[in-house]
Design brief:
alpha/beta, Rossmann fold, 6 strands
Length: about 210
């Protein structure tokens, strides 16, 4: 079975990233820094032999993917399954607001309780099943090829855990940088990690987001 090579990219920065405000599946566009980051990651991947580009259909990921597609004649394919975790009534609220007004729900969220789902949102268990399922499905279409997936911080976290065997509740010790380049391999046996958090194409510091 031929291996599929994957490049997973988190979208560029948004104003809500800076404000530590939960975006979830709300459709927030890139800010000026995020647009610059998207152009830089597009330039960094310009010579890669990319066979397909899939992206979350939310604007921040879609805008980033378009910059990766720009140097080549590849159409970005929208994949709603690559959307960020649905955070329900957390969406639009800052981390500090959630901590102060919903302390018990905040505790379950902060401690990564796998079964906890904010009202109207997804649990980590449901989210992991969605992300790993769609990522495997997309990778299986391209044996022996290189595929780019542009998505969100939570999606990157799920892929990292899948590739390294980290449990859902394990504390995060890895970065989820905006516009970072992450490399994995996929076979029917699962994902393996090749490289993570490459930001050499960004000459300025990047913002790591803890949970959204």
């Amino acid at each position: 079975m031929e291996v599929t090579r994957l490049i997973a990219v988190r979208h560029g920065e948004t104003a809500w990233n800076v404000d530590t405000r939960i975006q979830g599946q709300l459709d927030i566009a890139l800010n000026d820094t995020g647009l610059w980051q998207a152009r830089r990651v597009g330039q960094a991947l310009a010579e890669e032999p990319i066979a397909a580009i899939y992206a979350s259909d939310l604007a921040r990921a879609w805008q980033t993917a378009l910059e990766i597609a720009r140097p080549r004649a590849i159409e970005v394919k929208a994949e709603p399954g690559l959307r960020e975790r649905a955070f329900g009534h957390f969406e639009g609220r800052t981390f500090a607001d959630i901590d102060s007004t919903l302390p018990e729900q905040a505790r379950l969220w902060r401690t990564r309780d796998p079964a906890f789902a904010p009202d109207g949102g997804e649990s980590l268990l449901t989210f992991r099943e969605r992300v790993t399922g769609v990522a495997a499905e997309l990778a299986a279409r391209h044996p022996g090829e290189l595929v780019v997936m542009v998505a969100h911080g939570g999606v990157m976290d799920v892929l990292y855990r899948a590739a390294t065997g980290q449990e859902l509740q394990a504390p995060r010790t890895w970065h989820l940088g905006n516009a970072a380049i992450n490399r994995l391999l996929w076979t029917p046996q699962g994902f393996t990690l090749v490289g993570w958090g490459d930001t050499g194409h960004l000459s300025e510091g990047f913002l790591d987001e803890a949970a959204a």
